[in-house]
Amino acid sequence: MVKKQLIMERALELFAQQGIDATSVQQITDHCGISKGAFYLAYKSKDELILAMIDHFMMQFTSDLDYVVKNTNNDQLLYEFYYTIYSTFQKHSDFAKILIKEQSQSLNNDLFLKIQYYDSLMGKSILLMLERLYGEEITPIKFDLFFCIRGFMNTYSHLFLFFNLPLDLEILSKSLVEKTNLLARHSTIPFISEEVIQLVKHPKSEEVSKEQLVEMVVQKIDEIEEPIEKESLILLKEQLVNQTYSPAIIKGLLENIKDHPQCKWISYLLRNYFDF
């Protein structure tokens, strides 16, 4: 297991048991069976570790959602969209509860910026989904529907955070599909205009350059051990540099890495770079 991944997993166990503030770096290193020096080679501080954990979960979530939106048939797209959201949220709800319960003041600004960044990426996926599903027929109410979907996501996520309930994700997803379709087909009074969207739009995130992507792929090649994923990354790096493979081969290589937990983010970035 990669050392950074090990530290994140062991730290999360301690955070769940005794809270973030009550957990020291020494306790984390003892729980991992590593030295403090090894910890500080991976993370400069406990705050940086927490932000890395947020990145880890949000990168997986963003990548999975992007893949669903771009690769699911229209008749199943809404269902898979909602199911992916809530299954991922359910899986990582313990960490979300910990963050809500005790956010360190030193983290607030960095945490806010990260939330804004991933929120903007998620917004792009939702708008793409609406365009795929409904096309121009919902143009007048597109942004109202966008905010309704965001509202569904936020409101129903409270069931995972604040209530210890057995939830049937299949029924929840089907219920939200029905509600979304009703709004799309029967809403007639738009409120949110494109001008309003521009006013509340997050600052545009900086695009990742080809050179940065190559560096990230090289780093990932060094980190992972699985032969299929490693070879796929090597070939994708070659495609970034030389552009020698056909779209079908590129798509297959991206499929090979998309489910590897350490490749979620790089697969997301490469999918967007190659326009898949």
Automatic annotation (TrEMBL):
- Out of the domains of life, which is the source? Bacteria
**According to its UniProt record, what is one Pfam family this protein matches?**
TetR_N
Domain called HTH tetR-type: residue spans: 1-61
Q: Which Gene3D superfamilies match?
A: Tetracycline Repressor, domain 2
Write out the entry's keywords from A to Z: DNA-binding, Repressor
Q: Keyword Repressor, does the record have it?
A: yes
Q: Name the SUPFAM superfamilies on file.
A: Homeodomain-like (SSF46689)
Q: Could you tell me which residues form the DNA-binding region? A: 24-43
Keyword hit for S-adenosyl-L-methionine: no
InterPro entries xrefs = Homeodomain-like_sf (IPR009057), HTH-type_Tx_Regulator (IPR050624), HTH_TetR (IPR001647)
Q: What is this protein called?
A: TetR/AcrR family transcriptional regulator
